[in-house]
């Protein structure tokens, strides 16, 4: 028959594998939430790239309000549509994550100041929002060939 120690050891091994798998899946999901923030932000930038202040006197508006391209009004318009997959040309990469729009919106609420900071101050020096926000600032995603919360190199992958 089975000895108790062997059964316990096997059970613990399966439990650890399960926990690592669940933890890894949650980590991947958080990266996808962040990716959705970035992709919908980029879609908002594209959607508003040819817009301007709607007052009719462009010269006065630009002198008094600044350029629309870097305006708070544009940022507000973009922020209103964050995490809404319907604004993406291709949202298939996000459909497999349960409650992604809701969880993405939670991420935006928690880190709204960072997004605003990038928009107003970091955009020129760090044009890759995904890298700056998801990889470096929040550390929710890893470069290819790395994994986990610490972004450790994958075993067997040459640098």
TrEMBL record:
Give the highest taxon in the source lineage: Eukaryota
Q: Name one Pfam family in it.
A: DUF3456
- TM regions (residue ranges): 12-28
**What keywords appear on the UniProt entry?**
Membrane, Signal, Transmembrane, Transmembrane helix
- What region holds the DUF3456 domain? 30-84, 96-141
Where does the record place a coiled coil?
A: none
- Annotated family: Belongs to the canopy family.
PANTHER family per record = CANOPY B, CTG4A-RELATED
Q: What is this protein called?
A: DUF3456 domain-containing protein
Protein's organism: Wuchereria bancrofti
């Amino acid at each position: 028959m089975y000895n108790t120690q062997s059964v316990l050891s096997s059970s613990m091994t399966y439990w650890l594998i399960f926990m690592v798998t669940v933890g890894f899946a949650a980590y991947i999901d958080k990266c996808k939430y962040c990716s959705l923030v970035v992709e919908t932000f980029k879609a908002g930038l594209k959607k508003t790239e040819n817009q301007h202040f709607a007052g009719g006197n462009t010269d006065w508006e630009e002198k008094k309000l600044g350029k629309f391209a870097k305006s708070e009004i544009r940022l507000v318009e973009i922020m209103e549509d964050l995490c809404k997959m319907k604004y993406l040309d291709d949202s298939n990469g996000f459909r497999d994550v349960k409650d992604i729009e809701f969880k993405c919106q939670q991420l935006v609420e928690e880190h709204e100041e960072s997004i605003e900071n990038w928009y107003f101050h970091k955009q020129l020096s760090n044009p890759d929002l995904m890298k700056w926000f998801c990889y470096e600032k929040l550390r929710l995603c890893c470069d290819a060939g790395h994994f986990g919360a610490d972004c450790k190199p994958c075993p067997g992958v040459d640098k």
